[in-house]
Amino acid sequence: MKLIIFIFILLFNLAESQNKTNITSYYELPLENKNNINPLNIDFTELQKKPKKYNKKFVRVYGFLVVKGKKNILFRDKNSYEHNDTKNAVIVMLYYENLIGVSDKINQTNVYVSGYFYEIQNNKFKSALLNIHKIEM
Question: pTM for this structure?
């Protein structure tokens, strides 16, 4: 009986490790885009002016990234961050396991973020970047 339980636990842990994505460098994050579509390079201001045009589109946008665990925000620039201007910001959904050991390298820096843009209904934020593909410094 103990052997059966041991084998079950071993197989479960093996299956769990297969589901996790290994990150080879700090800016490579899991790719949810199975079709290998190139992202649309969009200016942050353009993204804010025409959110409906880019809703559910795979985009690449430049901004000032602030990493705070569950609450990650891409501001238009450092000035927007310093003034907590959430009108010039989007939520960036990053998985916690992808931030271990790398958040200090990308936190409070200007980066390009590639992911799917979505309009959302939130008190402070009107949009988010989900299914992040890549963060480039």
Answer: 0.71
pLDDT, tens digit, for every residue of 71-84? 899 999 999 999 99
Burial 100-124 (b: 16+ CB within 10 A, else e): eebbeebeeeebbbbbbbbeeeeee
Give, in degrees to the nearest 5, the angle at Cα 89 between 76 and 84: 95
What is d(CA 61, CA 91) in angstroms, rounded to the nearest whole number? 13
- Tell me the C-alpha distance between 52 and 64, whole Å: 23
3-state DSSP assignment of residue 67: coil
Neighbours of 13 (CB within 10 A): 10
